[in-house]
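[audit] Reproducing an earlier prediction to check determinism. Same input, same settings, fresh worker. If the tokens differ from the archived copy the diff job will pick it up downstream; this log only records the rerun itself.
[audit] input (358 residues):
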Amino acid sequence: MNRQIKIEDLGYDIFFESNRKKLQLDDFSIARVAAEYRGVYKIKNENGEYLARITGKQMFNALSREDYPAVGDWVAIKELDKENAMIYAVLPRKTIIKRKYINKNEIQIIATNIDVAFAIESVDRDYNLNRLERYFSIARDSGIKPAIILNKIDLISKEDLDLKLAQIKNRFNDIDIFLTSIITSNGLKELNTYILKGKTYCFLGSSGVGKSSLINKLLGENIIKTKSISSYTGKGKHTTTNREMYFLENGGILIDNPGMREVGMTDVNAGIDDLFDEITALANECKYNDCSHVHESGCEVLSALKSGKLSEGKYLNYINLKKEAEHYEMNKTERREKERKFGKFIKTAKKDLKKYKQ
């Protein structure tokens, strides 16, 4: 972006301004985190771009990875010179996309302050409705609007594409869908029109589905380096290893992400309930309030499944996502208890140290 920009062009609005005032950060400049490297952040505001680090106090007070800045965050800074700055605080987030590593308790922040999450799948090898549901649950739980990009449509016949499109609309009847190809440029104009000035869009998908190539096309230049897919394995390694923010000529803000092989659920029960609203409505009519919808008598969900009103694929994915989210919730409660005990230990230790000094 060579033109002079305003802070609002980067997505700043009344939500962030009111929180800046509440936190009494009037003496600081405000910037947005555009990229995250190891211990260093690229931040951007109306004055330009800076490389920034967080203060030692922030590191000391951080209880988890969520307390550190992430791509998309608004931060309070002080410029040290024309190229460097120090981050003193992270403003409250409007939205956040995060995932749990499968078989681990670690949480990874994908991006923050997102307006729309594009779930991208390629038609040739990556097409999977259940994975789309995972992306949507994560997005909707934070109030982020999900949308679908079905990419590389030049690789299949019109009949196969129509079949996939019918399957998607049958499973997700209220979500915007874009059919794209960087080879034929199909869908790129519609996608560019959809992306609005000052709004932030996150691209989610596995390695090799064409996220970065698509963003390059929208940018009109090859800013993001990509590698081709192996014709032997059908798998591709992508050179995108860091999350980074890009700015379109029309003012839209895009965030590219490294490919995700797995999408573990976090505390997204509300997002699951919203996505599977048909099942949620049935669950409210179950005989028991704590019905698991697996074996109980008087379960309206099982009744709909047996009658064919509810598809088996949708039901099984709902149950699996619910189990993952509930498992995470249990672990999160345990972690909070550990953090509470650790905080109590530190408080007691400080008192003992004070007595010892006296």
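[audit] rerun output stored. Observation attached for the diff report: The chain has three domains: 7-90, 96-256, 269-343.
[audit] end
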